[in-house]
Amino acid sequence: MAAKELHLGVALDGAGAHPAAWREPNSRPAELFGPAYWVDLVGVAERGLLDFVSIEDSLTVPYERRVDADGAIDRVRARLDAHLIAARVAPVTRHIGLIPTITTTHTEPFHVSTAVATLDYTSRGRAGWQVRVSGTPEEAAHFGRRAVPELTDAELAEAVSSGVFPPPVVELFDETADVVEVVRRLWDSWEDGAEIRDVADRRFIDRDKLHYVDFRSSHFSVRGPSITPRPPQGQPVVAALAHAPLIYEFAARAADLVFVTPALDAGPDAVLTQVRDAATRVGRTGEALRVYADLVVFLDTAAESGARRLTRLDELAGREFGSDAAIFTGSADELADLLLDWSGRGVDGFRLRPGVAVDDLNAVADQLVPILHGRNAFRTTYPNGSLRALLGLPTTVPNRYATV
Prior knowledge:
The protein has helices at about 35-45, 80-90, 110-120, 135-140, 155-160, 165-190, 245-255, 270-280, 305-315, 330-345, 355-375, 385-390; strands spanning about 10, 50-55, 95-105, 130, 195-200, 205, 215, 220, 235-240, 255-260, 290-300, 325-330, 350-355. It is of the alpha/beta class and about 400 residues long. It has a single domain (about 10-170, about 235-390), classed as TIM Barrel, CATH 3.20.20. The chain has an eight-stranded parallel beta barrel with strand order 1-2-3-4-9-10-11-13, surrounded by eight helices. Strands 5-6 form a two-stranded antiparallel ribbon. The chain has a two-stranded antiparallel sheet with strand order 7-8. Helix 7 packs across helix 8. The longest helix has 22 residues, at about 165-190. The protein is globular, with a radius of gyration of 21 Å.
């Protein structure tokens, strides 16, 4: 094996990252909201020996911020619940990690805790959680319990470039850090071995091994304990997508993985430095935050180059595709070169976003992965164990409430 083995995951979002992806011949638009489509996609990712699939979700339908898409009918304007997709594919997969996106701003942390813990049980220790902040007025309007101010494109661009966000945005991320803290404490509220299941003595649990979390902040007051025993991993993997120092700080406070979006021309060096600096500012100790670079990929096929595919999809959509992540077009060999280069510069792993889910995910599994095998840079079989083990995270996580 290479000195540093690559870590690869994939982000699944409907028919693909491109808004016209559903119109491609292989995209199965009639099946997007059926279980077979998702089982097949995750099966391809597992065939490719990928670390995990993350499943995108939000409290709004897919849209492009810079385009008035309220009345758009030429793109997929609906979603399934990411956690329930993960629950459906968990029993029919064996090794690949499952990381659904679950929003926090309008969701109770107690519910998130039990949902992810349950997924960890049904997947036999392969669950994760991508934390998402719900920061738009449209999302708030679904619930009617709070007002969320809207940033203009100019205000958002200025905040990202300067690193100075308006107080309401800072407050949202402070609240989300509290959500993750509550969830993590609830996962620990049952000690390992709290379930006795002693029929003769009529004792199912050892009550001394269940603990109140008694979390109090300006956002939450949660007593606990959870109603779900401690997950098989102890602490399922927590991930976050980040684009700016404020959000790098949140990830350093709360997450195990951070998905970042370096530009192709600039490379990952500056982002890696910002993430390290953010971890220092918040005083992160212990296990280092793992940094995964996101790339949207349109890979060459036998019939068409990736660049031509993207151009053709843009023509179908009537506009140029844009993304928060860098857009790669080219051959699987060229993508392998890029991944190995960035890995050598300190990136811990990669999350690929298929431009067209069916086509590009198959290309990753059937073209990219064999090339990486030929370069001794990627596993040739799955090891046994949990998602934490697959990602190189500690597999024994001490319980903060356990008594000696």
